Amino acid sequence: MTQFNEYRGNTGLNTGVSAGEAAQDPGFYIQCRDLFKIYKRADLEVVALRGLDLSVEAGELIAVIGASGSGKSTLLNILAGLDRPSAGQVLVGSRDLLDVSDNDLVMYRRSEVGFVWQATARNLVPYLSVADNVELPMALAGQPAKARRAWSDELLESLGMADKQKRLPYQLSGGEQQRVAIAVGLANKPPLLLADEPTGELDSENADNIFEMIRGLNRSYGVTVVTVTHYAGVSQFVDRVVHIRDGRIGSETFSRPDYRRDGGTVEEEYVVVDPAGRLQLPAELAERFRRGGLAKVQSEDGHIIIDPPGANPRQHRSRS
Ligand code: ADP
Ligand code: MG
After folding, report:
1. pLDDT surpasses 50 at 13
2. Is the CB of 71 under 6 A from ligand 1?
3. Are strands 95-96 and 248-255 parallel, antiparallel or unpaired?
4. Which of 20-24, 195-199, 265-269 is predicted most confidently?
5. Among the atoms of ligand 1, which is closest to the Cα of residue 67?
6. Is residue 37 predicted with pLDDT exceeding 80?
7. Which CATH architecture has domain 2-112+190-316?
8. Is the CA virtual torsion 70, 48, 54, 309 positive or negative?
9. Residue 301: predicted pLDDT
10. Alpha carbon 198 to its chain's center
């Protein structure tokens, strides 16, 4: 079996970051801490990410879900090295993406990440065959023809596209085009695959198919995968679903390690508490704080209990 670029996260720490505070936790391949992205347009500022915390282990497969405009694509573009963060920390492998040179960022995009876009047409060169599309990134990286062919064959085989290698993209269905796009993304064996709504233009059967294949590649090659999706059925294919709200991770849902394809997963949603102790409540709970107000926090039998305003009128009245 082909080995992907080895995870190099723990071998050398980044330069230019103060020791201690920015040190990477061993075991994590991606580490975002208090990450901010602010878009400035004329006199308008849009805070797309506001203090996002996220850690992803090497070889993990996670899905990011959230409402439109919540910052999902912004996060993915930063992880892809296509956009630069404004503040905070984002470490991927041995790189600090807040403090990386332009040249290094180009190298990072070329060798460390594969990217799959939602729009099928954006992923493939229309006048190249399926096989040539997959081989193109390898050719640009200077791979010899024989190695290119062998790896392209193996990838297309595992994506169920072996018999369609000579076709042009327009001769494929949307689902097939996305499968080829995944092969293109993995052509240079990056340790990280990012996909922004890869099934956004597909029906649920095709979406299942794509996630099933992503799952298979993740398991066979150990490639770390972060995928953004609206697809409600994604949780059965991934290790963890992170819910992004207003540019922060609000909660996470873990599928049990004994993952089963037949839907036999047990899911629990956990609210994320960041290192500063901040948390973002799930939407239905947050609704009870919509006009602000004080909550009563107490600890009981190892559980932390938060009473929203009005939950215990006597206590809240005594504050005013
Ligand atoms: P999502 O992918 O979750 O729908 P995005 O990450 O695309 O959300 O956008 C998050 C916020 O940042 C939105 O308010 C969006 O309008 C804004 N935004 C995204 N990209 C830009 C940009 N290039 N310039 C200005 N604002 C942007
Ligand atoms: Mg988006």
Report:
1. no
2. yes
3. unpaired
4. 195-199
5. 3
6. yes
7. 3-Layer(aba) Sandwich (3.40)
8. negative
9. 82
10. 12
Q: How far is the CA of 69 from the centre of ligand 1 (A)?
A: 6
Q: What's the CA gap between 124 and 130, in Å, rounded? A: 8
Q: Which atom of ligand 1 is nearest to the CA of 47?
A: 12
Task: Report the 3 state secondary structure along 184-233.
Answer: HHCCCCCCEEEEECCCCCCCHHHHHHHHHHHHHHHHHHCCEEEEECCCHH
Separation of alpha carbons 174 and 120, rounded Å: 7
The verdict on the CB of residue 144 being under 6 Å from ligand 1 is: no
Among 222, 249, 182, CA closest to 31: 249
Distance CA(271)–CA(292), nearest Å, equals 19
pLDDT recorded at residue 166: 97
Does pLDDT of 286 surpass 60? yes
Tokens 């709970």 belong to 285
Highest average pLDDT, of 13-27, 97-111, 171-185, 278-292, comes from 171-185
Q: What is the pTM of this model?
A: 0.84
Q: Residue type for 48, please?
A: A
